[in-house]
Structures are given as structure tokens and as C-alpha cells.
Amino acid sequence: MTNLIKKIHYKSFDEEKTALVINKSTGSPNIQAMISNLAKIEKRNIFISNLLKRLLDTGKKVLLLSSRTEQIYLLHRLINSNLVSIYVGRMTKKKLTISSNKQIVLATYAMANESIQYDNFDIIISSTLLKYIDQKMRITNHSTIIDIVNEHKSLFRSSEQQIGIIQQFYVADYKCDGYASYDDIDYIDKYIITEFWDIIDTLPHEIIYQWINKGTSKVSKLWCKLWYSKPMSIKLRNDHFAVKDADILLKFKNLVTLELESEIQIGEFVKSLTMLKELRIGDNDHFDDETLCYLTNLCSLTLMRNTRVTIESLRCLTKLTDLNLDKNTTITDAMLKTLTNLTRLNVVNNKLITDNSLKHLTHLNHLTLGTNNFLVCNQIISDESIMRLTNITHLSIANCISITNKSIEKLTNITSIHLNNTNKIGYQSLKHLINLSSLCLINTNINGLELRKMTGLKSLTIKSCANITGVSIIYLTNLGSLKIDNIGVITFTEISRLTNLRNLTIHRCSRAHVKKIEQMLPNTIVQNLF
């Protein structure tokens, strides 16, 4: 099998640990010192641990290689799973044998090259320098190698010497155009760990516009064969697409997801994309009923500010279950109420959708409504419709003054609820939600005495809630995830009592405080946002 090499280009804001280190004796870069610094970058290690956690769920056997034992032990602590083992020096032969049989093995390069059989692993991750395993990679011919590329030019090594297909990914621990955030779990799931041989979920736009139709293409025939035949997701950008390029897209017979930026004019070609399951038109106003009615396999549709799509085409989409009408000014109550198969609906910042249509959509299990502006309240959706949506499991409400405890207490199937500036919804109704495990409170009137009674919560987000402090949060011993905008609401002693906590997100906290929390909760991943 041909190697698949996934190169992750990682940028860090930690200037101290990414600085060039010079060997005073030779005047050349001190490679070993820079590798040591690289292995200590906090957010980089959080990214790697998140990647490994997601790989646990795939059932794949994974080998991670590092040049530093300290990094191995740190990652093992962050992941905290009995399916993950350490493979380092000074371990007995018996322990090494047991360790090598775990699903994920964290090993040093030296130990791995000495005694590990690379053929036993589905995925190999290089966290520092790939060159140490190049030779074995060519021999074992693995299907997937994940190479986390270093920033230092002195440390940079090209995977082009590898035999195989290369995918590029870009991650940073600070805001950087073109780079995903280091703590973006969705990016890891959707792009990095997606099984390439079964589904390709991303398509670099350069491939469409430069490589595929050129006789001198750098892309192998294998690439083209895979791209043309596999399920594909494509985003067309305003600055990289012209109508003349449309015929290229026609070669992708299994295009399942298409996203169009506002100025894209797709022409007639889209009518032939009959396999399309998800379409994100967004602000694009070049898409109309005549075109949409051909896409009868659509399951998910995002319209937003589009004004040319109406019920005339929507009624043709009999498989449609997911509809996003954020900011849409065309789809009315009369149109929406006929789409009774919908299970997901987003009507945020929508002034047309009212109780008259919502009350008919009784199959909904995910509903997002309200406004993003706390100065603008939604009064047109009320208890009248909400209380009828008893299949709802995920509900997000923002600035809706006509929804109260009266309807919420009826929705006993809810597992996740997001409340933003909803002062008419409180503990009086939440106590009836026996399946509730995830709660987000932003500027609500729920107080600490009420919150402490909700002991079944596994995920909690608190923002601008003056009546809630750590005195109440410590009663929520099942919490696995906690997000708070003000670290001042909870003390170090109180945090230390949340022994099941695996993810803690805080805002603008000093580095000293973060380190103290990590010492108290060594199994918790702490994310400090600025």
C-alpha cells in the first residue's frame, strides 16, 4: 500500500521555546536544545493529546514517536486512558511487551527503532523529527504517517523524500489566517483523522485551479483517480474560482458537500451534482429554485441571506432534514411549515419564522433560535410552539423574551441546552430536564443555590453570571468539561475538588495560575483564552 503522509504545520506563539538556539562552541544551531524546547510547548502538547484522544475512538492502533521522554510522560498524563501506554528505556522486557499491545503506544525514537515492529500499527505519529524513522517507513510501507512539522528551518524536514501521497494541514495556537486553532476538535475530526482511503473530506483549491487539467501536473494519476471517485467536500472561494472552471468539478462524480462564497456564479453545471448531500449557499444570491430542484438527494441546506430560493424548490427536496435560515429574508412561515421532515433547524437572526410554522415541525431534535444582539429581542417565537417540540434534544435560545419555564419544562428529552439572556427560563423548568448533561448559561438569572442541585451535569459553560461561584460549582462532581469567562468566580481549592474534570477553559488567566491548576489537576487539559 502507498504511504499517506499527513503533514501538520504547527505555529506557536511561545517565542521563548521557538527561538533559534546557537551552539556557542560551533556557532551552528543547537538542534538538541531546540528539540527539547519544542517538546515543552504547552499548547502544542495539548493539540497532540487531543489528536490522540480522537484516534482512540477510531479503534486504530497508533504509535507516537518523540525524541524526549518528558514529552512521552506528559502526553500519557494528559490522555489518561488505560488504552495508552509508555514505551521508553529502563522498562523491563515484560512491561515493554505489555505496553506494545496497547491501542496507542507512546515511544521514544530510540526504543522504537530498537525493538518495535512498525507493521503492527495503522498510524504512526512523529512529534519531533521524522528523519529517524524514514528508513523503516520505506520498508514497512504504512498507509498513514502523521508528521507534525517543526517551525525551525534548522529542524524542518521535508516529507517529499517519503514514498507516498502528502496532505497538508495548518494549525496554530494563536489567531493566524489560514490556520486552524490548536484546540479545534472539529478540525481534528473532520480533516486530520478522516480515513483517506474511504473519504477525502478536504480539497485544496490549488488542485482544482492549477493541477488537475494540466498535462504537466505534479499530482500523480493515483491522486486524480481517488479525487474523481471518492466522496468529496469542496469550498469554492471568491478569489479562486471562475465559471470556466466549473467543468473541472463535473469530474467529481461523488461530490457530497459544496460550499459557495458570496460571489461564486456556478452556472448550469451544478444541476448534474445529483449525489450532493450538503449545500451551503450562505450569502450567495446566484443560486435559485431552478437549480436547486435538481439536487433531490440534499439532506442539509444553508441559505442565510440568499433571496432567490423559495418553497418551489424546497418542496422537491424530500430528503432534507437540516435547514439553516440564519438571517434569511425569503423563507416564510407558510413555506417552512410544509417541511415536516426537518430534524435540525437554525432560525437565528430571522424575523420571518414564528410559532405558526415551528409548531408543525414536531420531528425537530436540534433547534437554534433567537438573535446574536442582546439589544434586539425575539418576541415572535413563544411557548405556544416550543412546548410542542417534545423530541428536542439540543436547544439553543438567545434573547427570546417570549419563551418561559412553561414550555421548557415539557421538553424532557433535552440533553443539551444553551441559554443566553433568557431571564424567563430558570431552575423551575430545568429541574424537570432529567436527561440534561450539558448546560450553557450566559447572562441568566439562575443562581448558585439552584445550580448546585444539577448534579447530573457533565459539561458546564458560564459567562456573565454574577450569581454563580465556585461554592456551587464544586457540587457538580460529574463535570468533565468546564468553561468560565472569569477565573475569579472559583478558587484553586474549589477547582481541585472537580476530580473528574478533563477539560477546563478559562479566559485571560496568568501563566502562573494556569500552571497551579495543572499541578492540582494533572489529568485536566487547561485552555487559557485571551
UniProtKB/TrEMBL annotation:
One of its GO terms (cellular component) is SCF ubiquitin ligase complex. InterPro entries: Leu-rich_rpt_Cys-con_subtyp, LRR_dom_sf, P-loop_NTPase. GO terms for biological process: SCF-dependent proteasomal ubiquitin-dependent protein catabolic process. PANTHER family: PARTNER OF PAIRED, ISOFORM B-RELATED (PTHR13318). This is Uncharacterized protein. The lineage of its organism: unclassified sequences, metagenomes, organismal metagenomes.
